[in-house]
Amino acid sequence: MTDPALTSGRPCATAIWPLIHAERAALAADLAGLTDEQWETPSLCAGLTVREVLAHLTAGASLDAVRWLAGVIRCRFDFDRQVAVRLAEQLGATPGETLGRFRRIALSRTKPPLPALAMLGETIVHGEDIRRPLGIRRDPPIDVVTATAEYYRGSDLVVVAKGRIDGLELVADDGPFRTGSGSLVSGRTVALVMAMTGRAAYCDDLEGDGVELLRSRCGTV
Length: 221
Description:
By secondary structure, the protein is mainly α. It is 51% helix and 5% strand. It contains ten helices and three strands; from the N terminus they run ααααααααβββαα. The chain is globular and about 45 Å long. The relative contact order is 0.13.
């Protein structure tokens, strides 16, 4: 069932937060039975394990604008260093502790100075960064992933997406999302989201004469 709050222009934060909470809960459930070895699986984020990506999500849900800015200043505006420091804070001593910390922020509405839609995008994209290497498949509700795709198609904030799909026509085959003009790229909405945010592995799930161009624009994330 389509949520009208997601289809009437840009959704408001009030409509977005329950979706973020639901995606966090689903991710925590998917990871509940991992072995210690699985927690060390390389994620789709270069250089990070699935456990470290989960800690990164916890960090993002633990930083308000004031703490985020204080950290940026402390790291002398080195944003990569800020991300690494905050990740280390939330990693915990064991995988169980990492997952426990994530569960505790599942209902948090704390965020850095980003729109709520960006937080939804982070949750879905990093959830897939974790799931795919583990062989776990999740199909988020189509209205949720469509709202995410609509956000990324018009944004280069945090991650380049709008620029990556320039000159391409993206068409979902499982929902209403479509954008752009040019060489065609089609497939599941979640695969389009992942490719437009730079995950080359998801280009394998897409079809059309624009796929290889999109793949060439995907890089290390």
